[in-house]
Sequence to fold (364 residues):
Amino acid sequence: MPLQSACLRARDLAGRWFLDSGIQEPFGGVARYYRSDLCRNLRVSTEITGYAAATLAWLHALTGERAYLEAALRAGRFLTRTAWDRAALLFPFEYSVDGDVAPPLAYFFDHGITLRGLLSLWRVTGDAEFLETATRSAPAMARDFDAGREFHPVLALPGKEPAPGDARWSRKPGCYQLKSALAFRELFAATGEARFREAYDRVLDYSLETHASFLDAPPGPALMDRLHAYCYFLEGLLPCANRPEIARVFAAGIERTGRLGEELAPEFERSDVRAQLFRLRLFAARLGLAPLAADAAAHEAARILEFQLERPDARLRGGFCFGRRGSQLLPFVNPASTAFCVQALEMWRAHQAGQFEPAWQVLI
Fold:
């Protein structure tokens, strides 16, 4: 099958996986991932539900299929009407189902991704509920996580005390938080309120000051995980990529991430890193920041396709695996990985047709 046709087929298979696999609960929430070895979903995640809402809204905009819009609306209304803590004005990290109690935590990063999912739905549907919730919740995000020069990564609810950090990058402040801060930038565009632009700029300044050391880690799986987070930083730069000093950081970051990723891939590779990096390369090419060789791009698309499952089981068919160790795929069928991979493939297909528009707002 020609590669472009394979990418189109992969998009449709992934869309059906979001609709038919059970990764989205009937009430609208989306599980963090499906454990194929245990045959069960993990807890519902507000972050992953935000990613899914954005993905489904994007798929609806591409295809016009009503089923995508209906699933996106279920995800969005779960976030606004059920998951959102109206007293705290924040989104808890996870949502408990069937008495499985989730830790009472809120993450700065997850919160911003959730808001971006709501804003994606608002742009597609015009439904004011999604913009209003994001507009009410974002100031609490900016205020409650504020730690002066940086933002706390995690708060304990309901008191909103900073949660203790540990060795994981996600439990420390870092440049990766810039992708989450895109929600502030989107809200500035939607409302014209300067406080949202200022909140994004604060995270931008901190991220530019600290990003250089983020990948200073020994080679191994932990560094591959950090490449994933560093791609978040690069994605967060996109609204400012026309500024020469940021364009230099952006191009150098793509080159460094790609080199390290290839060095680590034989031992451990994440599908989301490969997809994130491919999307960034497509943006860089379209913005005139770095060339994209056609043969190399086709090779990247083929490598991404290797992570998609085509097994008969509807819980697996069309989803993308989180990663692999050596040649062995890992038993995690992941909504975020699926979203990143299928969007990277579709953006490449549009690039090949001369139709790719580098709108950072639609970047899942």
In short: The chain has a mean pLDDT of 95. Residues 45 and 94 are 4 Å apart (CA to CA). Residues 244-264 form the longest helix (21 residues). The two ends are 27 Å apart (CA to CA).
